[in-house]
Amino acid sequence: MVAKTVPVDPFDLIVFGGTGDLARRKLLPALFHRFMARQVPDDALIIGAARGKMTRKAFQAHTIDALEEFVAEDERPKDKVKTFVAMVDYATVDAMSDLGWDALVKRLKGREDRPRAFYLSVAPRFFGPICDRLGANDLVTAATRLVVEKPLGRDYESALALNAQLAASFDESQLYRIDHYLGKETVQNLMALRFGNALFEPLWNSKFIDHVQITAAESVAVGSRGGYYDQNGAMRDMVQNHMMQLLCLTAMEPPSHFDPGAVRDEKLKVLKALSPITETDVEDHVIRGQYAAGRKGPGYVEEAGDPNSRTECFIALKVEIDNWRWAGAPFYLRTGKRLAARHTEIAIRFKDAPHSIFDSGVAGMKGNALVITLQPNEGIQLRLNIKDPGPGGMRIVSAPLDMSFAKDLGREVRMPDAYERLLMDVIRGDQTLFMRGDEVEAAWAWIDPIIKACEGGKATPVSYAQGSDGPMESHILLHQDGRRWRDIE
Ligand code: NAD
Q1: Does any domain span residue 168?
Q2: Is 129 in the pocket of ligand 1 (CB under 6 A)?
Q3: pLDDT tens column, 110-156
Q4: How confident is the model at residue 392 (pLDDT cuts 50, 70, 90)?
Q5: Which of 7, 47, 332, 392 is the most exposed, fewest CB within 10 Å of its CB?
Q6: Do 134 and 188 share a domain, yes or no?
């Protein structure tokens, strides 16, 4: 079986912040991979736009550098790189003044019929000014899309203000708010698994599921980004966006269609059904942590440059969803820096068998677990209880049923980066895997009181050892419910 790639229409993509880190590490390599897969036609136009003066040639050289650094050598034949960079152009444009806008208007004149995408790969303070200038310069055509990425606000009020700012120049149907977790193959596979098979859906509720664990662990420290990170913390950096999105996809009702309206309506219903965590019960639901100094390096507060910092670089939450499907089956979320390993997964822990007919007893039989791993190695595993092989009686052991599928599909597939899928969706005009404005607002509306309670002195960060699974208090959060975290490995 051969991977099916449907080419997109010739398009114009203007990347504001085209010389920045995100463009270099992710966007340019992703576009190149799609070009290699013959999905990006060779009359596409990719314009890097930034304030710095640079010639087209210099930006093409910058693009080649990026590909050499972030695309494997055997995946970038020289002639293909040459054809690709011929599509790349550069525009000096200042978000905050009129510098360069006339030239950009001229460059795009006569191309109004093509899909046009503006990707704002710049700091969020530039979002408003760029949108205003796109509007004022008549650059927003009927086929224009605008792509923005986190941070989408830092609380409910600022998220509302940002949405209003975007809405001044763009219709919601033109807005693509990226959460790159949604572009991951396994996350989409979670939906295929749930809604493409009759097997799981009847079990997908608190009658059969004991609880869900969502873990996003990083082994790296905040390092030199400590000062910047300290203004946000794990709650804003990871929970409000990525982890809430994973929770929504796991918990949502089956949408009537796999289309933007239906999928996003169902995700929004989940966000609205989240049980509020109030100031009085925040300490029963939220554990915050900071890594201590250790052999691997300084502690969080030293890296943050503030010995009195109360910002969390680890957080564990117990989240309840107030609806029929999930009442009684909590979602436990945890994310943090400087943990035992870099590992992101969603683990659906089914209930134990009610009674064991085997001598080893129920204790020997763990409840089944469906584990969807997002990184480092994307894959899906179902843990089943089977007979320990051998003639020695009926012993039950837990074994994984691996669903990596690559071999079964008859091809070794390179796992495409999330940005590849998402960029092509932008050009195709498919918003299904992007967040709608009301979703972002609903997530902040639920998170805001927790952040306020924490900033008011609740759930003070506790210390944890570098390279560990997080603070002891996070383990106690589950122990008191008779549950335990899966190991981070
Ligand atoms: P960066 O600092 O590396 O690049 C910023 C870009 O903005 C540069 O190209 C710079 O020339 C341009 N710029 C600065 N001032 C400008 C102005 N006045 N007018 C026009 N262009 C101007 O930043 P980055 O890491 O690429 O991140 C960009 C955005 O994407 C940020 O909002 C960041 O939070 C978000 N983001 C980045 C990553 C990542 O992996 N780097 C991941 C998720 C989200």
Answers
A1: no
A2: no
A3: 999 999 999 999 999 999 999 999 999 999 999 999 999 999 999 99
A4: confident
A5: 392
A6: no
Same domain, 237 and 191: yes
Containing structural domain, residue 33: 12-149
Task: For the chain, give the longest Cα–Cα distance.
Answer: 81
Residues 393 and 264 grouped into a single domain? yes
Whether residues 208 and 339 fall in one domain? yes
The answer to whether the predicted template modeling score (pTM) of the entire model surpasses 0.90 is yes
Q: Is the CB of 22 under 6 A from ligand 1?
A: yes
Q: Are residues 204 and 251 in the same domain?
A: yes
20 lines ligand 1 (CB under 6 A): yes
What are the pLDDT digits (tens) for 172-202? 999 999 999 999 988 998 999 999 999 999 9
> Does residue 1 carry a pLDDT above 50?
no
Active site residues: 242
Pairing of strands 331-336, 209-217: parallel
| Residue 300 and residue 464 in contact, taking contact as beta carbons nearer than 8 Å | no
Instruction: Count structural domains, the chain.
Output: 2
